[in-house]
Amino acid sequence: MNKIVVLVSGSGTNLNALINAIKSKKVRNAEISLVVSSNENAKALEIAKNSKIKTITINRKNFNSNEEYQDELFLCLKKENPNLIVLAGFLQIVSEKIVRYFKNKIMNIHPSLIPAFCGNGVYGLKVHKAVLEKGAKVTGATVHFVNEFADEGPIILQKAVKVKQNDTPEILQERVKQQAEWKILAKAVNLFCSNKIYVKNNKTYIN
Ligand code: GRF
pLDDT per residue over 19-32, tens digit each? Predict the structure, then answer.
């Protein structure tokens, strides 16, 4: 059984999709042992509690420096000792120390087709605003392993989504979640838990 820790900050729809995929056995050999939130008011916490998943909040505001915050997060993750960590709308950067310790064991979901519309500071609705401003006709989502550079780790899965003429960032965000994020996140976790993902030279290969 693979132990998974999910890190969240917000509405938790990706967490919800993952919980449902595990319940319905679309994801096998996996259990979410802990949900860590950076925000005590995150709806994601309620979602976890409703499924009887252990939760903890580690809020940056309660620490004097980012270093102290990252150390606490690192200790918490080390103690839980998961096989996989999933960043599902986690609005904090994770330190290099964490990334090195859990090399190729941290997955992130990003709401665009990387390398488009990503990088430092490009997250949440900003991504969808940028897509609409550019007039792109296709966007999507990407699940990738996390390395020390924002959105640059090995890509695991991607799925394209059409942009429509009258889209607002909010409408587009919702379509990308429904048509791409929830599906490829569960699929990527299932591949990982079936030992089907292999990483070489910053690229993934799926058996
Ligand atoms: C998603 O769009 C995800 O791609 C991004 O943050 C958002 C989280 O949404 N990293 P939710 O909390 O899972 O609803």
Answer: 999 999 999 999 99
Structure tokens at 149: 């550079």
Q: b/e for 106-138, b at 16 or more Cβ within 10 A?
A: bbbbbbbbbebbbeeebbeeebbbbbeeeeeee
Rounded to two decimals, the pTM is: 0.97
- Measured on CA atoms in the order 12, 46, 8, 185, is the torsion positive or negative? negative
Which ligand 1 atom is at minimum distance from the Cα of 127?
2
Residue nearest ligand 1's atom 6 by CA: 89
37 Cβ closer than 6 Å to some ligand 1 atom: no
The pLDDT tens digits of the residues spanning 130-140 come to 999 999 999 99
Is residue 140 within 6 Å of ligand 1 at its C-beta?
A: no
Ligand 1 atom nearest the C-alpha of 176 is: 2
Q: What phi, psi does 10 have (nearest 5°)?
A: -135, -125
Residues 6+ apart with CB under 8 A from 93: 150
Q: Which residue's CA lies nearest to atom 2 of ligand 1?
A: 111
CA distances, 123 to each of 66, 89, 106, 111, 183 (Å)? 20, 9, 18, 8, 19
CA dist 198 and 63 (Å) reads 37
